[in-house]
Sequence to fold (392 residues):
Amino acid sequence: MQEITRILHALPIDPLTGSISTPVYQTATFVQDAPGEHKGFDYARSGNPTRQVLENLIARLEHGRRGLAFASGLAAIDCVLKLLEAGDEIVAVDDIYGGSFRLFTHVYEKFGVKVHYVDTTDAHNILDALSSRTRLVWLETPTNPTLKISDIEEISRFAHAAGALVVVDNTFASPALQRPLELGADIVIHSATKYLAGHSDVIAGLLAVKDEELGARLKFIQNASGGILGPWDSWLTIRGIETLPLRVEAHSRNALAVARALAEHDAVAEVFYPGLPTHKNHAIATRQQRGLGGGVVSFTLKADTEQAARAFATSTQLFKLAESLGGVKSLLCHPATMTHKSIPREKRLAAGVRDSLVRLSCGIEGAADLVDDVRLGLEAVSKVESHVFALS
Fold:
């Protein structure tokens, strides 16, 4: 069965009315027939029919047993971290999302959780960092924003042998391209704000797990902490997921065209895109991502300065300068001053997030139009370089 067919027919028809669209149950509580006797729902923090459809959907998309929906991607991450106790350790990807780094460093480290950051593109780096206290191995693949690829299957073998769970942030790939649970991961995280909802109009986070007991523990934490996704945002996310495979195919097609144009331009130093054969992890990406490179392209400039990156970021017309990614309209950001600003500069540079690095989220516009827009931004960079050269 094709993916688009599987998604569309995973959504139930409303049994009460026959509505083909999932109803929005905008309610805080549910009337009971007698004390403790209800129709499966008692209070909307603990469960809501609209949210339940979304949670079941993400579990099916990731081939898991349990799904959970949260008010944001970081709320989902926070739920996973609450599995830990003082003295526990995490081995995490070095090129990590700034929000995850902030949560790890400024919230959980003060409670006695220690985090080791390593380059996870070499699985043996994880093997060297594992200890008897390691409880979680934390991956993003592809990473944000340098699009490094980690071998989920090999890393899962190492982690499980040491008694650790493997958590994969699958936001950049989405279930349309990659299913980490099938490769050995224990927990999959999504900022559903991005590709899953897909229209830059909702903040949401999702988890999927393959183990029922682990799912029950996370469900308990979700209910106890209360960071749940509301019914309207759940409905918006469901609506977005219905077109996920079609959108991801268009995102990937456009990103590949943009990546090729960047690679040919004299002002560009390096292009990061798993769909290019020149990407150092291209073989792994092709093996575990179903062959498509996704919709995000990052690149650095030969004029490796914040000034050059700003010139590009403020000169495009179709790529809008904004946080986030994965929407139908193209966006760009400058990670050093935006998404990764909270990471100390020395750590950021060590992970490859240079001052001139620009991240592009390719939407579903015409590919030729996006390529022309990128060239427009690069012309502005060339003018800055010429001006600097003239002054020197």
User: Anything to note?
Assistant: The longest strand covers residues 134-140. The longest helix spans residues 367-391. The chain has two domains: 3-241, 244-391.
